[in-house]
Amino acid sequence: MKKTFMIVLIMLVFAGQTMMATAGEAAPPSKQALKLMKKAQKAIESKEFDKAAEYYQQVIAMDSEYAEARFALGRLQLAQNQLEPGEENLKKALELAPDHTEAAKLMARLLFSKGQQFQQQRNVEEANRHFRQLIDLPNMAELDRTHLGQSLYQLGVNLYTQKKFAESTEFLKKFQQLPMAQTEFAPIYPASNYIIGLNHSQQKEYETSNEYLSKYIDARQDAENDQLLPLAHFIIASNNFQVMEAEAAPIRKDKEVKDLKEKLAALAAKFQDSIVLHLEKAIEQKADLEPAYVTLGNFYYYKNDQQKTVETYEKLISLFPDSPDKAKYEKFLEDVKKEIAALEKTGK
């Protein structure tokens, strides 16, 4: 663990240290145990931490089921950089007294700090494990909504990167359902809609995806230099393009269909606004968004507008001369130009 992490943890450990929550105790502690607890508290105030730990150990030896002694010792051990025994004693305190609020709060802070550190180390699995443990602590929505919300959100993001799209959405929706989530988590709340939109798009649930992406756009449309806005517009356009292609599939497969190009053009006209307007917005906000030009050129080809197809692909090639797909773009452009020449030759 990093030194900075321990400094923060020590501050958290001794914040409100004089509080002794005894809720959930099966039986009151003995007088001797209480005397030892007071001695331990005075030792802490005198910064005699080792002596305080001895007193707590004596209490636990007398009564291993005394949750408050487990909590106090665990808190002290964390402050002394004894992380594993400290965490174990906190866990034991919560097992003995699940409604021990101070133990739950401290455990939440510990788990979140460890989760964040693993996150910074790009150890996503370990980060997720700690965030999940925090989420499962009792009454977190009332005791520590801030760390609960941040854990739910980060877990949702991590699961998206791991391509666990349904599970990612599950945690992000729990995040959104927290009381006052839109105000308390204002900096990250819109992004939760964006990620949920991505999840649904990956699952080919395009209508729902568009719904959440539109929420993101509505919330962030006046923001300056928002890198996700053009991507949200592009994904909506891409979603609608996928829907259009799905509707085009049976038309293409029908061997008896006449005037195929005209039928596809009519279908494309139905999707004109839901595709082109979003692509134009995406390109306006992010001029180097290569897939947006590709999708726009392909849409015009669907619409049987060869001239705009050529213009779009020529611009695509000029803007992205080093694209690994440049040869494909040039081949498609050449084929479209041949189609135009053939049509001109036949006078159609």
What does this protein structure show overall?
Among the domains are: 1-111, Serine Threonine Protein Phosphatase 5, Tetratricopeptide repeat; 227-348, Alpha Horseshoe (Serine Threonine Protein Phosphatase 5, Tetratricopeptide repeat), CATH 1.25.40. By secondary structure, the protein is an all-alpha fold. The chain is 76% helix and 0% strand. The protein is built from 19 helices and no strands.
CATH superfamily assignment of the domain at 227-348? Tetratricopeptide repeat domain
Please name the CATH topology of the domain at 227-348: Serine Threonine Protein Phosphatase 5, Tetratricopeptide repeat
Quaternary organization: single chain
Based on the structure given, which CATH architecture of the domain at 227-348 is correct?
Alpha Horseshoe
Major pleated sheet: none
Helix content: over 70%
**Coarse structural class:** mainly alpha
How many strand segments?
Answer: 0
pLDDT under 50 segments (min length 5)? 1-25
Number of helices: 19
Strand content: under 5%
Name the helix and strand elements from N-terminus to C-terminus, one letter apiece: HHHHHHHHHHHHHHHHHHH
Average pLDDT value? Answer: 90
Distance between the termini: 74 Å
Taking all Cα atoms into account, the compactness measure Rg is 30 Å
